[in-house]
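Bump. Still looking for Trans-2,3-enoyl-CoA reductase-like structure tokens.
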Amino acid sequence: MVQGKCDAVGKITQLVLSAGQLKSPPVLKHSKITYFEVEILDVQSKKQICIVDKVPPSSTLLDVKHKFHKACPQWYPSRVGLQLERNGPYLKDSINIQSLAVSSIITLYFTDLGQQVGWTTFFLTEYTGPLLIYLLFYIRLSSIYDKVESMKNFRHPVVHLACFCHCLHYIRHLLETLFVHKFSGGHTPLKNMIKGCAFYWGFTSWIAYYINHPRYTPPSFGHRQVAFAALAFLMCEAGNHFINVALAHQNHSGGKACFPSPTYNPFTWLFLLVSCPNYTYEVGSWISFTVMTQTLPVGIFAFLMVIQMSLWARKKHKLYLKRFYPEHSTSFSELSVDGMRE
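Sorry for the wait, here they are.
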């Protein structure tokens, strides 16, 4: 009997040894990821709209906007403006949520930016209008001009040249919008597009009405004035295009970011004098068009463009200084105002 028990124990021992060392159960590792909780308040009333919870540290503000949209479907991400302070700037979509955190709870203020449109839609709409409107006046519709007077009066060659130059200008803008400029998915309020269209479309109607009118008189100095202005216009258009191509190449070449600089193309050498040659060429185009057509509406439009382009150039120049020379941005800004660099 004892011998039988010993044999059984021996077999069990042999079985255990042949199976190898018993493995200990795996230890469960607890996650150390800290999730954030984003509290969103109304910027006016300071009332809580919603809380976005379980936000990973790697999330961006755009991720928070998408989660906010799921909780409040009436506000899609492009019309949501979020601020750290009530009077502070709107935060960019690309900012990392962890960089905003002081604790596990982040408080943001919400502003409804209104209905938004993409930048590509904005520019295509703004530039397509003037192109089509001018052509409607150029063909002298009977609903715009007197039919008998239109048939009787001879069109001066500058009228045809002006139509060509005007169409060329806006076709260039449209093609650059589609193939040169790169928009990073940004949006702008719909009201901005309405204001821009009202400005460009309205002035185009006024300009085209005068130039294509049956009683339009050619410039005072005749063909020489027209030829000189047309040549200047074409040079400015070419310069504007080459500057935009150079800027697009520098922004998306993948190299080290630097202050915009000229290339081997002579049209880009204007970078040696100003920070934003594209605005300089744009102003040059409209001044040339004014000299070529010698009409008051074009002159007023060119004057307004000088003001607008100067404001845009000054703003972009300050952004360049802040981005590339932050330690000298104040002193450089003072020099640029005195030296008219922008």
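The chain has ten helices and six strands.

Edit: fixed formatting.
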